[in-house]
Amino acid sequence: MTIQLTPTQEERARAIHQRAIIITSHDHVPPEVDREDLKRGGLTTQLLHVGLDSPLDAPDRESYLALLQQWEGWCKRTLLHLDQVLHTIEEHPDELLLVSGPEDIRRAKSEGKVGILLGSEGGKLIEGRVELLRIFYRLGLRQMQPTWAYTNQLATGETEVEDETPVGGYAFVDHVRVREKGQPIPGLTEVGRAVVAEMNRLGMIIDVDHLSRPAMRETIALSTKPVLAGHNAAKALANRLSNLTDDEIRAVANKGGVIGLHFMTHKITGQMHPQATLEQMLAQIDYIVNLGGIQCLGLGPDYIYDPDGRFAKNSGQTELSFVEGLENSGELLNLTRALVWHGYDDDSILKILGGNLLRLFEQVTA
Amino acid sequence: MIELTLADEERARWLAQESLIFVCHDHNLAPEDIEAMRRGGVTAKQVHLCLDAQLWADKKVFEASATREEGYLRRAMVALDYIYWQVEQSKGRLVIALEPEDIVAAKANGSVALVLGAEGSRLLEGRLEILRMLYRLGLRHLQLSWSFVTAVGATQRDLSGRGLEEYGCSLIHEMNRLGMMVDVSHLSYQSMLDAMETSTTPILNSHTGALALNPGLHQLLPDEMIKAIAAQGGILGIHFMSILVKPGPQQAKFQDLMRQFEYLIRLAGVDHVACGPDYFPLSDPRMWENTGYPTYTYAEGVEDISQVRNVIRGLIALGLTDDDIRNIMGGNLLRLFRQVRAAAQTGPWQYVPYAVGTGACTDGVTPL
Questions:
Q1: What is the per-residue pLDDT for B346?
Q2: Residue A360's closest CA among A31, A94, A12, A105?
Q3: Cα(A51)–Cα(A119) distance, rounded to whole angstroms?
Q4: Helix, strand, coil shares of chain A as percentages rounded to 5?
Q5: Which three-class secondary structure state does DSSP give residue A345?
Q6: Which one is predicted more confidently, A168 or B169?
Q7: Which H or E run contains A51?
Q8: What is d(CA A242, CA B65) in angstroms, rounded to the nearest whole number?
Q9: Any idea what DSSP says for residue B252?
Q10: Helix (H) or strand (E) holding B74
Q11: Number of A:B CB contacts under 8 A?
């Protein structure tokens, strides 16, 4: 079974892709590197992570591991990234724009520019202070995951698990801590709860990925607005630590939230090899849509910029791959083609490509 | 304090109302102090988000802060958030002055303006990127260093004749480009000279005075430095704290302060003098223990920001014209702010990250 479209279908796919507001909800490739790909892929807006609780650029594995456990200094790291990203956006006013609110996404579409929506994969950047959250909001941050995998000032991360889960091939496999029976895993900290409330007040997108399970449940319950699971997939089809159980998919969907479907092989199939296919991607799409409804699905590729391979080496993730045909932002049309081929109607495709994420952002900022 | 004729008292009242009062070098962020500005008819002050020492801490912590470089960025951001919060609560009565015209507008509609700055550059953690991010957040002033030695270059504690380091110069280049006030207070004299040579805009020495009137204090300036700063077009903010105004532990008389004004005006000219009171929150005595100052008073008649306009009465007694008085009370600082903003380069610029070996996570960090 391969994806072969009739000329009519090809034309329809192109037309939908051209007219769609296309938004991705998880990306690490900065626009100074990615600009041409973003345009080629027809993106309207990319949610770009200027913050990350993991040291992508640590010089070696030893310092990588040490920095993972370190809670200080991430405000500075994030400001350094942010400075360069803002510089790039300002250097290319005809091609890029900074997205501060949902109206900027519509403006990007009408002006033919790529919007950059700033986020952070992990909350270490605010160093445990709500004040710093507000300062980052002023600098343009509109999304944050309280944690990335590891426990920080805001919440317990997903590396603390309730039971023995197969986790092979993960960067942090050595760090997963299985709690003894009857020993509860903590959720959000006091500051973490204040941060959730403040993100609601400011109109920031709360992303529940990589939280410990209790923290995820607590965040979904506490938030007065819909939440995002910006780069995730169904555990039923791919048994990975971060992937969502059926209950979790329903919880996000019932809240009015969106799950940005991950583009990496292991998140789609559960295995590092062979490279995932578009058909397997469609199986994830069908599964999540069946469970949560068409309004709960978006796209969360998780493209990573690692030019000299140091992150892959330091983190032990040398075998990562993306779904065939979706290996960078420039290839997004292939997803639209697959959706057309698979029989999704125009309205559903528009929702998956970005309509749902735009709606989420509108609800969060309302 | 000082006796004026009835006519001069009337003139002082008129000038206090009519002048745009703008002072530099202040540490008070509390709402009560903003109210005191209102009460005293002060339109604007240049206020610090942070100081390069942990003065409001136990002695051990203070002493350790001589070499501890981390933590200032976070403290500055918390302070910044506190200011933004007040601005939001004030419904337009308090504004952050991003441009000189914001101060002019504040005077016109009776609001109060803050020019954001910092006493020392430790909050930058050695990176120009963070200077740029703080500029985006409203920072328009930076004093390169407090008296502790940092990567910027020699401070007043360094009597070896050493000047600014390359890092200090690159900070000035970037501040010039962004359009920020370069403050050289607390630097060594050679560093000040280096800063004046490096900066393309006039510099500020925000809280100082004449060494000739109070020998032995390296924060004050010898005659040749006063002249050099004036010749560069720079501004000298006169310190109001007793210990700096005159020798000895007693509270300075108003006349002692006016002697400083008279001396600097004579040497630097009326266009190069301003008020640099250095008001602190006085409630925490640990600061005074830490600095070893025997007294923590300000000169009589100017004991908090609500009394700054008394300086006008002193300047009248010195025989200055209305224009000169207005310039000293704020016009000179406003001119400096305008010069600095006019020199800002808004066009395309080269992206230059710069690192020095400070901070917990500098090693191995590139902007990407």
A1: 79
A2: A105
A3: 7
A4: 45, 15, 40
A5: coil
A6: B169
A7: strand A45-52
A8: 42
A9: P
A10: helix B72-89
A11: 86
A48 strand-pairing partners = A27, A118
Query: Would you state the structure tokens that stand for residue B358, as one six-digit string?
Result: 């400070």
C-alpha angle B274-B276-B282 in degrees, rounded to nearest 5: 155
SS3 A25: strand
Strands A258-261 and A297-299: parallel
Residues from B contacting A (CB-CB < 8 Å) are 70, 73-74, 77-78, 80-82, 84, 125, 127, 129-130, 132-133, 136-137, 348, 351, 353, 359-361, 363-368
* CB < 8 Å from B in window 67-86 of A: 67, 70, 72-77, 79-84, 86
The identity of residue B45, as a single letter, is: K
Range in A307-311, A361-365, B137-141 the model is least confident about: A307-311
State the pLDDT confidence band at A59, using cuts at 50, 70 and 90.
confident
Report the range out of B209-213, B352-356, B364-368 with the highest average pLDDT. Answer: B209-213
Above 80 in pLDDT, residue A256? yes
**Structure token digits, residue B286:** 């640990």
Q: What is the DSSP string of B192-233?
A: HHHHHHH-SS--EEEEE-BGGGSTT-TTSB-HHHHHHHHHTT
pLDDT digits (tens, 9 = 90+) for B28-63: 988 999 999 999 999 999 999 999 998 888 889 889
Query: How far apart (Å, rounded) are the C-alpha atoms in residues A294 and A285?
Result: 9
Contacts of B351 in chain A (CB under 8 A): 84, 87
- Measured at the CA of B208, the angle between CA B204 and CA B212, to 5 degrees, comes to 125
Residue A361: partners with Cβ closer than 8 Å, 6 or more residues away: A101, A102, A105, A117, A142, A205
Least confident of A9-23, A121-135, A301-315, B282-296: B282-296
Task: List CB contacts of B196: < 8 A, sequence separation 6 or more.
Answer: B184, B203, B228, B229, B232, B234
Please report how many Cα atoms fall inside a 13 Å half-sphere around the Cα of residue A239, on the Cβ side. Answer: 5
| Token pair in block for residue A278 | 């578009």
In three-state form (DSSP H/G/I as H, E/B as E, the rest C), the secondary structure along A225-267 is CCCEEEEECECCCCCCCCCECHHHHHHHHHCCCEEEECCEHHH
User: Which residue is associated with the tokens 């008649």?
Assistant: B301
- pTM for the model stands at 0.94
Distance in angstroms (rounded) separating the CA atoms of residues A123 and B16: 49
Residues 6+ away with beta carbon under 8 Å from A154: A123, A126, A128, A146, A147, A188, A189, A191, A192, A195
